[in-house]
Amino acid sequence: MKLQTIKVVSYNIRYARGMDDQVNLNRVAAVLAWSGAQLMGLQEVDKHLPRSGFRHQAKHLGWLLHRHWVFAPNVKWGPWAQYGNAVLSYWPIIEHKHYPLPSKGEPRGLLEVEVNINNRAVAFFCTHLGLSREERLEQVEIILKVMTAANKPSILVGDFNDDRDSQEFNLISRLLQDATAITGGFETFPADNEQLDFVFVSHHWQVLAARPIISRASDHLPVLVELSLNN
Q1: pLDDT digits (tens, 9 = 90+) for 17-75
Q2: How many helices (H) and strands (E) does the chain have?
Q3: Phi, psi of 182 (to 5 degrees)
Q4: Burial class (CB in 10 A: 0-12, 13-18, 19+), 228
Q5: In angstroms, how far apart are the furthest CA atoms of the chain?
Q6: Beta carbons of 87 and 111 less than 8 angstroms apart
Q7: Contacts of 165 (CB under 8 A, 6+ apart)
Q8: Closest CA to 160 of 61, 73, 19, 41
Q9: Which residue from 211, 179, 75, 181 is spatially nearest to 130, judged by alpha carbons?
Q10: pTM attached to this predicted model
């Protein structure tokens, strides 16, 4: 017997700055609403920054989409202005943790959220890796340790800043399945014709479908994956 099918999205929203260089959070919300995803992992999310109209983007998206939300800043400017990762969830968020990752440039982090799906605890992770391979390898090692310690059905989403031919990808693939591989992969960063955005799942999941969502609301395309949690 399989539990219900769920949809998961990973989306680097670039603080809602689209390919036309206009900042429009409503466009991002429309893309996410259209996806129908119950779990959404977002990267490059602003909180109270002038470039995005001083809006708390995670909170506003949660309100627009009727989702529970949590925001984890990786970068802070003073007491209010922040920038980082966010998760939106159809299910109440039981617990969340933020893990700073070793970074040589822009600070990076891993956001862990626990939700309950049909009486099963599920760990949902969202991250955005660094720009250098050296730091990404260190970051991946920590992420995998955290996920192993979680010891429950797990999903990892994010912008990994490299493609499936990378050392980082090989490390992750030893523990997790690339859900986008069901289609052979696809472009998520049109400017460089690359796939930088992935959804990885533990062995507890069956991957049913995966595809990008075509949109100009960011410089990345959202990744939409359908999963079923096995007994």
Answers
A1: 999 999 999 999 999 999 999 999 999 999 999 999 999 999 999 999 999 999 999 99
A2: 4, 12
A3: -60, -25
A4: middle
A5: 51
A6: yes
A7: none
A8: 41
A9: 75
A10: 0.97
Q: What is the pLDDT of residues 123-143, one digit of tens each?
A: 999 999 999 999 999 999 999
Selection from 163, 152, 201, 166 nearest residue 39 by Cα: 201
Amino acid type, 9: V
Tokens of 17: 């700055």
H or E element in which residue 30 lies: helix 25-35
How far is C-alpha 14 from the geometric centre of its chain's CA atoms? 12
How many other CB atoms sit within 10 Å of the CB of residue 56? 20
- What tokens does 200 get? 């990885």
Q: Which two tokens stand for residue 26?
A: 């409503």
Q: Would strands 154-159 and 120-128 be described as parallel, antiparallel, or unpaired?
A: parallel
Q: Is 107 helix (H, G, I), strand (E, B) or coil?
A: coil
Tokens 């689209």 found at? 18
Residues with Cβ within 8 Å of 21's Cβ and at least 6 positions away in sequence, in order, are none
Burial of 149 (0-12, 13-18, 19+ CB in 10 A): exposed
